[in-house]
Design goal:
The complex is a heterodimer of chains A (175) and B (572). In chain A, the strands form two sheets. In chain A, strands 5, 6, 7, 8 and 9 form a five-stranded antiparallel beta sheet that branches. Chain A starts with a strand and ends in a 6-residue tail after the last helix. The radius of gyration of chain A is 20 Å and the shape is elongated. With 175 residues, chain A is an alpha+beta fold. Helices cover 36% and strands 16% of the residues of chain B. In chain B, strands 3-2-4-5-7-6 form a six-stranded parallel beta sheet, with helices on both faces. Chain B has a six-stranded parallel beta sheet with strand order 11-10-9-12-13-14, with helices on both faces. The longest helix of chain B has 15 residues. Chain B is globular. The relative contact order of chain B is 0.11. The chains are: A alpha+beta (175), B alpha/beta (572). The interface between A and B is medium-sized, with 31 and 31 residues.
Chain lengths: 175, 572
């Protein structure tokens, strides 16, 4: 079972996200993480899904995603040069005398301290998912209270995939 | 703007759109949320609205119409229960790739999500069983949405599309503009196959010793039966068909091996098992065809032509995939074939299998059997009728014994296996087909699932020949109970509870007869086929304990095939 990061451009339509999620659950495919957000084009959103499966399953996942009418472009980034980033908010206990140590760890991971109380600190750490795993691993020695992870966002390195804008597509020539 | 003659209400726009899509029939049922549409429908003369008696019937009728005509079937129902009643039909159309557009009423936009009266989230409910669906949120989007709906339903691999119409959208007004072209950015079906792949396929087929064409519903949908006929005959290639593929190639042609798979013929399945090149045309290697995937057709080089890329390598990994419309691909493939393969020996071998284990049934004990009735129906119609079936044993027997000679003549629920499909689907087919008889073969179980549609057939004077093969059992379930569930006939015996079908038909105003004697079959069929201005019903009381053979049990291999138990020596 290999992890695959799939990048999907979808129409920013009502229910488009649900179509993708419904396809995954209906066909019994796994979703490890999912993120969705706006892109440079107003009517298009980008979804990044981390899934897992053997080659046959991932082949089906990509084909089934392509088959959805609202998906415009589906790319399996795994195996091609690409950048993956994730953001995590980690609320960690601050036992007496360990403030400096936690700050050091935060510096090493080039994180930000975004909230602090007498007994806890919240760190914001971004990077590839394994970097975040490493940070969580180190911080767990102090006791982690809560974690929120954004899910992975990813982009292919190098050239850009050109997508036509909606208004350039439809030519309504009267009736 | 208001002086613009094209300034119209959503309801007017709706019918203007249907006019431009050349819709002849709407199968529907009125209700609160679509009253405005029905108000306009009252004065519409360019199409005919067919009032069904249950919304499920409307969808199956639209499917029957679409399958028989090749056009898009159209359904109009109200919100809430009207919409949810269409769900089974939509799922059926999705599984069998039938082009239909289902318009559902919806509560007013401001009430959506409020648990309003007769509200159901039909777009959410039907998302996994439609090719695509829409909620129209603004009257300005109505025309372009309808255009897209028809385009998506009928192009590529066809399928059902749902368009949900809130009450206020239908009532509000805008300037009507029907787009001439439609382009959906995320939807570009591939029609032309890859030429190099096609060339390779031609080479492989030319060199084959034991080639076999495995043909599915895609050949019928793409309208390539003629191309297939020429290709198979010129190259002397035997043809086996899936349930949906029956009719794609003439069943009476010597090259036809009939159906393959679970209840396929012995010789078709032996051919699949022993061929060296398998050419799949518009079929999807579903589990009723393959049985155990690991042992399915292991000796062959597999070529798979399909318009839907997801069908490729989904169930069976193939050697040479060609994504494209069968019609285009077959034309190109035929042109690339330089030398036809020598199949003389192979065809002789298949003939041998055919003689070794033909389709047989007991016919000398004086009792009436379904196979006999279906064979008689075939004889009376020369394989030229449109034969619609329900689901179960009679469906499999029809697939075996009715040798369809024309495409768009076999109308049956394959993928979903929807009992209750037959009667309403035959109503839809009868609207599409006027020059050939339309026959509805049903079982006593399935017939009762949409029995209310008898009214629709009577009211519209449709000359459907309704033949009920009544074995007083849910026969196919009973067969599995006998074979695999310790003969525990749990809730499949209908003999005590079945109604008197003749009396039921009479109550609906249908001339009807019943018999349990083989000798009366001829006469009753002649009577039925002589009537051409109204439905006609015959109940055939057949043997209870008959089973459909051959049978490859679910998930088993061809070597596990059970054949008819007439003569124990015939068991393989």
């Amino acid at each position: 079972m290999k992890k695959h990061t799939i990048s999907i451009l979808v129409e920013n339509h009502f229910g488009a996200f649900d179509r993708v999620a419904t396809m995954f659950s209906g066909k019994g495919f796994n979703i490890r993480s999912i993120s969705i957000g706006e892109t440079e084009i107003e009517e298009i959103s980008r979804m990044t899904i981390v899934t897992e499966g053997d080659d046959k399953i991932v082949d089906q996942i990509v084909k089934q995603l392509n088959r959805l009418i609202d998906t415009i472009k589906v790319v399996d980034l795994t195996g091609t040069p690409h950048i993956e980033r994730e953001l995590a908010l980690i609320k960690v206990n601050v036992p007496k005398g360990s403030m400096e140590e936690i700050k050091n760890i935060n510096d090493i991971f080039r994180g930000n301290i975004v909230d602090i109380t007498g007994r806890s600190m919240t760190l914001e750490i971004t990077g590839p998912p394994d970097k975040i795993d490493a940070a969580i691993n180190l911080l767990s020695a102090f006791g982690i209270k809560e974690i929120a992870r954004s899910g992975i966002v990813a982009l292919k390195r190098g050239e850009q995939i050109k997508i036509k804008k909606e208004k350039d597509l439809t030519t309504e020539k009267g009736k | 703007m208001k002086n613009n003659p094209n300034y119209m209400s959503g309801a007017e726009i709706f019918f203007e759109c249907l006019k431009r899509e050349n819709v002849e029939y709407i199968f529907g049922y009125p209700g609160g949320a679509v009253l405005k549409l029905y108000e306009h429908l009252y004065d519409v003369d360019f199409l005919k609205h067919i009032l069904v008696r249950h919304e499920q019937g409307a969808v199956h009728a639209a499917e029957g119409y679409a399958k028989a005509s090749g056009k898009v079937g159209v359904v109009l129902v109200t919100s809430g229960p009207g919409a949810t009643n269409t769900v089974t039909g939509i799922a059926d159309a999705y599984m069998d790739s039938v082009p239909i557009v289902v318009f559902t009423g919806q509560v007013s936009s401001h009430l959506i999500g409020n648990d309003a009266f007769q509200e159901a989230d039909i777009v959410g409910i039907t998302r996994p069983i439609t090719k695509h669906n829409f909620l129209v949120r603004d009257v300005k989007e109505l025309a372009s949405t309808i255009k897209k709906a028809f385009y998506i339903a009928s192009s590529g691999r066809p399928g059902p599309v749902v368009v949900d119409l809130p009450k206020d959208v239908i009532a509000s007004k805008c300037v009507f503009q029907y787009p001439e072209d439609v382009e959906v950015r995320g939807y570009k079906p591939t029609y032309k196959g890859n030429s190099n792949q096609i060339k390779k396929a031609a080479e492989v087929i030319s060199k084959a010793k034991r080639p076999l064409l495995y043909v599915g519903g895609g050949v019928i949908m793409s309208g390539s039966s003629e191309e297939l006929k020429i290709f198979a005959r010129e190259n002397k290639l035997p043809v086996t068909m899936t349930l949906q593929g029956l009719g794609a190639f003439p069943g009476t042609d010597p090259l036809s091996l009939g159906m393959l798979g679970m209840h396929g013929t012995y010789w078709a399945n032996r051919a699949v098992d022993n061929c060296d090149v398998l050419v799949s045309l518009g079929a999807r290697f579903d589990d009723r065809v393959t049985g155990k995937v690991e042992t399915f057709c292991t000796k062959a080089f597999k070529i798979h032509v399909d318009i839907d890329p997801t069908a490729i390598d989904k169930n069976v990994i193939v050697d040479l995939p060609i994504v494209g419309d069968v019609k285009h691909v077959l034309a190109e493939l035929a042109a690339e074939m330089n030398t036809p393969p020598d199949t003389t020996e192979w065809l002789a071998q298949i003939e041998e299998w055919k003689n070794e284990c033909p389709l047989v049934y007991e016919d000398n004990d004086g009792r009436l059997r379904s196979e006999f009735v279906i064979e008689k129906i075939f004889e009376k119609t020369n394989g030229d009728a449109v034969v619609v079936t329900d689901v179960g044993q009679h469906q499999m027997w029809t697939a075996q014994y009715y040798r369809y000679n024309h495409p768009r003549s076999n109308i049956t629920s394959g993928g979903l296996g929807t009992m209750g499909f037959g009667l309403p689907a035959s109503i839809g087919a009868a609207f599409a087909v006027k020059d050939r008889p339309v026959v509805c073969i049903s079982g006593d179980g399935g017939f009762q699932m949409n029995i209310q549609e008898l009214v629709t057939a009577v009211y519209n004077k449709l000359p459907i020949k309704i033949f009920i093969l009544n074995n007083s059992f849910l026969g196919m379930v009973r067969q599995w109970q006998e074979l695999f569930h310790q003969e525990k006939y749990s809730f499949t015996d209908l003999s005590v509870s079945n109604p008197d079908f003749v009396k039921v038909a009479e109550a609906f105003g249908i001339e009807s007869y019943s018999t349990s004697h083989p000798k009366e079959v001829d006469n009753l069929l002649d009577k039925a086929f002589a009537v051409n201005d109204r439905p006609f019903l015959v109940e055939f009381k057949v043997v209870k304990e008959d089973m459909v053979f051959p049978m490859i049990p679910s998930g088993a291999s061809i070597s596990d095939m059970m054949v008819k138990r007439l003569n124990p020596k015939r068991m393989i």
